[in-house]
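I had to read the description of the data format several times before I understood it. Each protein is reduced to its one-letter sequence and a matching series of backbone shape codes. The format is easy to grasp once an entry is in front of the reader. For illustration, here is how one protein appears when written out as sequence plus structure tokens:
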Amino acid sequence: MRSRDTVTYSLVFLLLVSIFSGIYMPETHLQLDDENEMKIESISKNNNLIDIPTWKIADTWNYNGYLDMVDFIVDSGVNTNLQTLTGTLQSTVTDIFLTTVDNSSSLVYKVESQGYYEANNIDLDGQPGDLEVNMDTVSIIRASDLATVSQEATIDINFCRDFLWWCVDVSVGTLEVDQSYSPPLEGYDFPISVGESWSQDYTATTTYAGSSDYVDIPDDTVSQRNANYEVVSQGFSGVSYSSCATSYNISSTNADGEDTGYKWYCPAVRGDVKMETIESLGFTAVHSLSSYQAVSRQKIINVDLEFPLSPIDMDISAWINVSNNNGNPVANEQLQFRYEIEGDIQTITTSSNGSAHVTFNTGIYGDDSNSGDDLGSHGILAWINSQNPIIGASTITIDPEVYEIDLYVNQDGVSVERTRENSTLTLDENVGF
């Protein structure tokens, strides 16, 4: 019996280890759910740019999800009727703070998640019962680009084995996984636009701890990895969630060109409305947004750039505007301006119109992903460092092939009127210039 227990519970433990020791990277060639009867075959670039969101402490995303393990089970050779684990995942922003990331001062979010998955009335190699998995994770996310700095996960695995009319609880094991990425993993490349693609080389350092009576805890690893991303489409994700009818599919492959999943980013919820992960071991993890609770924004910070697309090493302006939730300007508000790629940190205060003017140099540094179209896209932050921090953000793209004559002014800051005879018309991007 001991041998059968070991094989059975080793299968379960291996599954969970593989989930958290792998990278959740999206796939490139996407086939949507069968009921949507849609296949993406081609892409084209557009000018509908989606800039980086900002989060607040207590913002919460709730997901329903499942782990499809049919292929994994078949390949394992273990006799079982287990096909899926179903459950829920809740992610909450619990802190905003400054830390050092790759020798640079960075503003980051701390996101804590709780997941619960179960499969009832299953049979594992002749042992009937219920499988339960509890997972707690802590992720550190860089605020300037939503790159993942690190992830910690604690996984508790239990199998409640049927015995006559009772259920005997068997603790399969507890696993602690700590992953860090250098440079941080850029699963997004703001501003997002259909047709954009980027790649990244990075080092993943993974440490393991925990205990199990059935299997050994894995050895620590340091591995060199590559991820290739592409924004393949804009449209319906397959999840009927309010305000997310238009989302953006970000897909990815690994260094071997294998599909590893996808995610649909929805600007209205400041995050993903759907995520799918495909692991080479033979299982698929799918999560769909069930609810999003955004904390009230009593103050709003907007970062308006003079030139969102700029040459390298050029002095430009930015206007930091603070308003309350009624849209009224907030005067005498002290903030910190952060252009972290250049280490440019400034303390500023809004004037009577709620605005503060800043000048900064765009610099000469690229980002940690290669898009081929520019040198780098960098987040620019302004934040109020209080008990409940508030952040504003925007992205500047620097390109050595862009020159001063090429610059365009942000249309939000321009008003053009055309007067003909007694008629005056205000022109915008909808009317035409």
Remarks:
- The first strand starts at residue 60 and ends at 68.
- Helices lie at 2-21, 70-76.
